Amino acid sequence: MTTKRLIAKLRVSWRQFARAKEGNTLVVFALAFIPMLGLTGAAVDYSHASLIKTSMQSAGDTAALAIAQSATTLNAGDLQTAGDNYYRALFKRTDVHDLNVTATYSNTNGSTVVITATAIYDTSIMGVMGPQFRHLPIAITSTSSWGTSRLRVALVLDNTGSMADAGKMTALKTAAKNLIGQLKTAAVTNGDVYVSIIPFNKDVNVGGTSNWGANWLNWKLWDPINAVYSAVPPVTVCTVLGLYTIPGFAYGGPCTTLTTSVCYNGTLYNISGISATPAGTCPSPPVTVTNHNTWNGCITDRDQDYDIRNTVPNPLDINLLAGIASTLFPTEQYSSCPTQMMGLSYDWTALNSKIDAMSPDGNTNQAIGLAWGWQSLTQGDPLNAPAETAGYQYQKVIILLTDGLNTQNRWTTDASQIDARQRLMCANVKAAGITLYTIQVNTGSDPTSTLLRDCATDASKWFVLTQASQIVQVFNQIGTNLSKLHIAK
Are residue 372 and residue 437 in the same domain, yes or no? Predict the structure, then answer.
């Protein structure tokens, strides 16, 4: 039969069917019911299958992340067994069958663990459309990659006197050590994760015993305070009780003699309260400076605007007493000098020991802690962050925790002025691509710090805590986030 004759015959049959009256409604309904039922069933069954796939994907993601830690030490068979066992322990649904799980590892262009899982779901309604619709195959793939991403974290931790209250220092030590443990677990090989620890109060401590001869130090503040003039009567320059200001120079601390004068840049100043009055030239012979090896390691803020930047110090910048801004770091014999900082390291035992050594004392200068957290992530003097290797992505993070508002820096006790400098630094830190977490532990009645809120990279990285115990919870949350950042899905 030709195509033309076939079409003509079909037209005749259709006209006869259209003229027939008996049973038309039933026939039409019957013809329509099957596709309607199929479409409805498809919606129900596909929705159910989607939920199953979500559960399968979640189990795969978790399993891939978990076995990544041991993947480099397992042979293919053991890796397969570990992946299969871990997956089945997580995925407990009984509405699928023929579940098949595979786990593979590759170290090409970094390290990768891939979990694939397939299963069959028996449809509940779609099967009426035919045997080919009675089963739906479901498949997922989960990948954990590492080795191309490296994580560097600076812990900038408040060590001021108020941290002794309400169990805050105890909670901070527990939280920081837990976080270090999480980061250690996230590191598959040495160098994957580095951590620095920067305790701060008004100052930071870079270590006097080990660094007093370093060429990146600026002694223009320390020398006049720690010097003896041999005039008659003798004028002993010491750290004077209270705060006093000399142009370009501020200082505070306990006085070890009864002297109330200081010699700075050739001029003798009489000190009364917080005032410094010029009183002629320095006596002669000029000065015998105390040996720098007696310095306790304390550093105050750099000259502005280096105080808000991570500029590498220039040892040739030696005109330190002429009022010229210096890239070097000013030494100070602060009596409440905090625990010495520790640059980037993966010596997990030493990092924990450094946390244990922290002790609360002194006033609050968040900005100097933040400045040195940034320095710890910077290559070159003074903390010499390890060089970055080509082919890797580096994630840099600063976690700043404090329990108080700013009270004192090198120049002032005016909190608004200190905050203004810190805001500029926070903007510079974030512009450098560093992720900044800020945590305010407010167990007292301090106002909520808008400074810390604005300093954080985004709202999810700013925390206000009202109990010391919450420090542990927040550090655990941050540690989990950083581990995921390092071992990405």
Answer: yes
Please say which residue of 105, 121, 145 terminates a domain.
Answer: 145
Residues 55 and 193 both lie in one domain: no
Predicted confidence (pLDDT) per residue in 200-256, tens digit: 999 999 999 999 999 899 888 887 777 654 443 333 343 333 333 444 343 333 333
- Do 319 and 428 reside in the same domain of the chain? yes
Give the domain range for residue 319: 149-209+302-486
Mean pLDDT within 414-438: 97
Token pair 């795969």 is found at: 60
Considering the domain architecture, whether residues 310 and 377 belong to the same structural domain is answered as yes
User: Is position 68 within any domain?
Assistant: yes
Beta-bridged to residue 439, according to DSSP, are: 401, 463
In a domain, 188, yes or no: yes
Is there a domain that residue 175 lies in?
yes
Same domain flag for 455 and 420: yes
Q: Calculate the dihedral angle through the C-alpha atoms of 441, 446, 447, 450, rounding to the nearest 10 degrees.
A: -40
Q: Which of 3-7, 195-199, 463-467 has the lowest mean pLDDT?
A: 3-7
Q: What would you report as the CA-atom Rg of the chain, rounded to the nearest whole angstrom?
A: 35
Could you tell me which of 176, 201, 173, 157 has the C-alpha nearest to residue 361? 201
List pLDDT tens digits, range 405-417: 999 999 999 999 9
Classify 107 as helix, strand or coil. Answer: coil
Question: Cα 3 to the chain's mean position, in Å?
Answer: 75
Instruction: Give the DSSP H or E segment for 218.
Output: strand 217-218
Q: Are residues 349 and 416 in the same domain?
A: yes
**Token output for 438:** 């800020």
Q: How far apart are CA 429 and CA 376, in angstroms?
A: 12
Q: Is beta strand 261-264 parallel, antiparallel or unpaired with respect to 249-252?
A: unpaired
Query: Is 297 a member of any domain?
Result: no
* Per-residue confidence (pLDDT) for residue 124, from 0 to 100: 74
CB 307 within 8 A of CB 301: yes
- For range 441-466, the mean pLDDT: 95
How many domains does the chain fold into? 3
DSSP string, 145-205: EESSEEEEEEEEEE-SGGGGGGGHHHHHHHHHHHHHHHHHHH-SSTTSEEEEEEEESSSEE
> What is the SS3 assignment for 278-341?
EEEECCCCCCEECCHHHCCCEECCCCCCHHHCCCCCCCCCCCCCCCCCCCCEEECCCCCCCCCC
Domain co-membership, 349 together with 271 = no
Q: Which two tokens stand for residue 53?
A: 């796939």
Q: Quick one: angle between helices 366-376 and 415-431, nearest 10? A: 20
Q: Which residue has the higher pLDDT, 152 or 233?
A: 152
Give the pTM: 0.66
**Same-domain pairing of 284 and 367:** no
Contact 120, 137 (CB under 8 A): yes
User: The domain that contains 390 carries what CATH number?
Assistant: 3.40.50.410
